[in-house]
Amino acid sequence: MKMKKLLLAIFTLFVLTSAAQAQTVAPVLAPIGPQSTTENVLLTFGVSATDGDAVIPTLTTLGLPAGASFIDNGDGTGTFNWTPTFTDAGIYNVTFYANDIVTTDIDSELVVITINEAGNQAPVVSDIPDQTVAEGATFTTIDLNTFVTDADNLDSEISWTFAGNTALTVSIDLANI
């Protein structure tokens, strides 16, 4: 009887140890490497991971730039998407993680994303509406910033200059007098 209990104890210990060991393989994130694009050009790339435990790793990120997205597809793969704006040139560090939900094992990679300058984008001036001023009335000030956009600069960074005739020319249609 003692031998039977001893064998049962050894068997139970073996089963528990084997089960614990079967759930201790860390997930492995496939290498991603540095990524780059140019302002206003879509950057998209895939991320994948495997796990020797036959558990599908959960994929997450840290440090996503504004406007970027990362979707865990739920099958050990994920997709990063970002169309950087004309003011996003620079270097961004994004960390991607593969997490084993059975254990606390994590694999990660810090990915350097470089956004190249697309070059200076010319400001766009929309039509400034004609202004009519009644005799004796005060001219209404026009905020020219509302008629100009510049993909590279904030309104506060735009400077105005004028050239040519700066005198006000008034013409009177005699048919209206």
Description:
Helices cover 12% and strands 32% of the residues. The protein has 1 helix and 10 strands. It has one helix at 2-22; strands at 27-29, 35-38, 43-51, 58-62, 69-72, 77-82, 90-99, 106-116, 124-125, 148-149. The strands form 3 sheets. The chain has a 4-stranded antiparallel β-sheet, with no helix packed on it. Strands 2-8-7-4 form a 4-stranded mixed β-sheet, with no helix packed on it. It has a two-stranded antiparallel ribbon with strand order 9-10. The model is unreliable at 13-20 (pLDDT under 50).
Describe, in short, the structure shown.
This protein has 177 residues and is mainly beta. The chain contains one helix and ten strands; from the N terminus they run αββββββββββ.
> What's the rounded overall pLDDT mean?
82
> What does the radius of gyration come to?
32 Å
Strand sequence of the main sheet, in spatial order? 1-3-6-5
Give the N-to-C terminal Cα separation. 126 Å
**Beta content:** 25-35%
Content-based structural category: mainly beta
Total count of helical runs of at least 4 residues: 1
List key phrases describing it.
mainly beta, four-stranded antiparallel β-sheet, four-stranded mixed β-sheet
Helices and strands in order, then pairings?
Elements: H1 2-22, E1 27-29, E2 35-38, E3 43-51, E4 58-62, E5 69-72, E6 77-82, E7 90-99, E8 106-116, E9 124-125, E10 148-149
